[in-house]
Each structure stands twice: as C-alpha cells, then as structure tokens.
Amino acid sequence: MAWFLQEHGVDVTVLERDHIAAGSSWGNAGWLTPGITAPLPEPAVLAYGLRAVLSPSSPVYVPLRPQAELLRFLGGFARNSTELRWRRGMRAYAPLNALALGAFDRLALGGVDATTERADPFLACFRTAEERALLLNELKHIGDAGQEVKYEAISGAEARRAEPSLSAEVGAAVRIHEQRYIHPPRFMDALAASVRARGGEIRTGVTVKRLRDDGNAVSILDATGAVQRFDAVVVASGAWLSELARSFGVRRVVQAGRGYSFTVAARHLPSGPVYFPAQRIACTPLTFSGGDRLRIAGMMEFRSPCAPLDQRRIQAMVTAVGPLMEGLDLQTRRDEWVGSRPCTADGLPMIGGTTSGRVFVAGGHGMWGVSLGPITGELLARRIMTDRDDPLLAPFDPTR
To answer: Could you tell me which residues come within 8 angstroms of residue 183 by beta carbon, excluding any fewer than 6 positions away?
Structure first.
C-alpha cells in the first residue's frame, strides 16, 4: 500500500507493531501461485468432520473450547463451504489472480531490489490418483471461472524424474506452470528499503490501539498514549484487523488461521516448490545465512493469534512429510515458527473503503496475502487517489 501510494505522490508513514518482516511476513512459504489461489471455504473442507478438526494432528485444527467469536467465524465458514458460494468467490478472485504477478514486476521495475523466482517445476504431489482427483476438479472449476491455468497430470515416476527428492510414496502429481516464489523476509526488507528511499517513514515497535475520524483527519492512538493525525489511514493489520476496523462498519470477523513452518537441511534440495495438498504441506527451497535449506510450511489452525506455538502441530508436519520426501534431516529442525493468516468466513479478502471516507482496509487474504499483496496495494491506492469505485474490488467490499 505504501509503495503504490508513493506512485501517486503521497507522503506515507507505516506504523508496524513489531519489525519489518515480522509475523506472517516472515515464516510463510513465499509462493506466488495465482493458479491455485481460491476461496478457502469449499465443500471438501467440511469432509474432515468434527472428529478430525479436533485432533492436533489434523491438517485443519480447531481447539476443543473455541471462543464465541471463533464459533461465529466457524458458523459462517461452514455456510460458505458450498459449491455455489465457492464458484461465486472464485469468479471474484479470477481477475485479481490474472493481474497478481504483473504487480510484482512493476515493483521490481520501480526499484524494489528483490527477485521473484520461477517455480519450474511447481509440483502438487499425491499418494494416489484418487487423491489427485480433488485438485484436478478444483483446477477445472478455476478454469470455468474464467482464469487460465496451465497444468498437466503426471505419474509418480514422472514427478520423481522432475524432482528426485520425492519418495516412492508419491504415486501421482500435477505439474502447474507459470507460477513463482520469493524469499519472504528478503522481499519484505527490500520493499521497506524502497519505501524509505522514496521518502516514506516506517516506524517500528508501534502498537495502534484506536482510530478516530475527526472530520478533517484520522487520529491514531498508540499503546504509549501518543496521538498522531493523518489525512487518511489504511488498516492492514492482518489477523488483528477487526480490532481497529470494527467501528468503521467492518463487521466481518477476521480470524487467525495459524500456519506453522520450520527449515531443514536436505541431501538434495528441490529445484522449486513442492506441494502436498492432502497433508496441507508446502515446501520451498530458500537460502539463509547458514546455507540452503528447505522451508516446510503448512497446517490450518483456527485459534487465537497470541496462543503459543503448539509442538504437536510441528510433529504432525514431520510425520506427514517424512514418508513423502527423501534425504530430509527432520530431526535437526531450525526456525520453528507459527504465524497468523487473516481469514474471513467467506474466503474473500476485504479491500476498499469503510463508513469513514478517510479509513480504508486491506486484509483478510487468508493464505494468499503474499500472492495478492502487491495487486491489492496497487488497486486500493488507485481507488483512494481517484475516489472512484473499481469493479474489480466490488466483491471485496469491507462493509459487505
């Protein structure tokens, strides 16, 4: 948001509660995969059943005693997990997905010194062809919604030839073309450096407690009691978005859908991202200060964003990925992490204005905040500066 507002000549200040590339910006898989960006609520999610989601080893987990707001979110999530609503949501996503990678290219051309890597191949792997059928069906529906996705079903043997780190347990796969990935913290650092180089101010360690539209400006109260005033404000606070936006007509719950990750050494580092949809596990080769490592990320845990890391979830990931890949040193893990994806009950982000003409919202992207972050910033910056509604953003109205 800050970078694209600067493109319109705006003076920007970013208030960050922690530091650049903290929270979900640090430990995610870094995938730029518009080919599989779709609403999270879908009929297949309901197939897990109550017993499954209450198990800490399940790919989707809900604590035994959810709070009232979480129950409200889960009720809405269940209502939206129908084929009709998924298709409607997919038609809303399709135009944004088509523009998503181009927004990264415009950042690079504008001076953001971070590369996007081609995910070639991008492999979604399964034990059986029956497991794979769910993804093939979803990709067909994505195509039916008007989004072009290039993919092909391949055998387990073909997948292992393309990616030798896969084990013999992989019996079927889908190769998806024209996707990319990034090194998340490096990209965020480069983006922040560009905002600063263009005259923007980034204040870290600032926790915003309340916003107030004073008519001529927006007052921001932080945790120290200090008050700052700005012409306009964009709330992009992830899983905490509801706390600040509720008083401006944003009634939908933004729930933390927590994901976990860690890194491991590998005898043969994959040449690109590897996805295990049935296990909800994403693997990305990344370079850290200590050398090349594989980031293993995944799981969906509907829980408070402030809850501590649950070691059972890490172990569930180890158990899930171990048989599917060879040469991973899963016992000497580093960088164990949990972060909170901001999820909405209908699976659609909230991008646009509020009941205040000076307060705007950009958030609720669920698992797709990395892929759709730049195009969200570009479109909303244009909406703010022109004061004209954009039909691409209509389905994502924060006050819907």
So the answer is: 30, 114, 286, 287
Taking the C-alpha atoms of residue 177 and residue 175, their distance in angstroms, rounded to an integer, is: 7
CA dist., res. 194 & res. 214, Å (int): 31
Please list the alpha-helical segments (H only) found in 266-353. Answer: 311-321
The answer to whether 264 and 325 have CB atoms below 8 angstroms apart is no
Residue 129's CB is within 10 A of a number of other CB atoms, namely 14
For the segment 276-321, what is each residue's pLDDT rounded down to a tens digit? Answer: 999 999 999 999 877 899 999 999 999 999 999 999 999 999 999 9
Q: Classify strands 274-276 and 122-126 as parallel, antiparallel or unpaired.
A: parallel
Which structure tokens are listed for 195?
């905002």
- Which residue from 112, 18, 33, 45 is spatially nearest to 345, judged by alpha carbons? 45
Q: What is the DSSP annotation of 78-121?
A: HHH-SHHHHHHHHHHHHHHHHHHHHHHHHHHHTT-----EE-SS
3-state secondary structure 174-227: EEECCCEECCHHHHHHHHHHHHHHCCCEEEECCCEEEEEECCCCEEEEECCCCE
d(C-alpha 294, C-alpha 127), whole Å:
21
Q: What share of the chain is helix, strand, coil (3-state, %, to 5)?
A: 35, 25, 35
Own/partner pairs for 58-63, CB < 8 Å, 24+ apart?
Answer: 58/316, 59/278, 59/279, 59/280, 59/298, 59/299, 59/300, 59/320, 60/280, 60/299, 60/300, 60/301, 60/302, 61/299, 61/300, 61/301, 61/302, 61/303, 61/313, 62/301, 62/302, 62/303, 63/302, 63/303
pLDDT tens profile 343-397: 999 999 999 999 999 999 999 999 999 999 999 999 999 999 999 999 999 999 9
Return d(Cα 8, Cα 284) in angstroms, integer. 35
Q: HSE (CB half, 13 Å, CA atoms) of 308?
A: 3
| Rg, Å, the chain Cα set | 21
Q: Retrieve residue 150's tokens.
A: 């290039």
Best CA proximity match to 339, nearest among 228, 258, 273, 254: 258
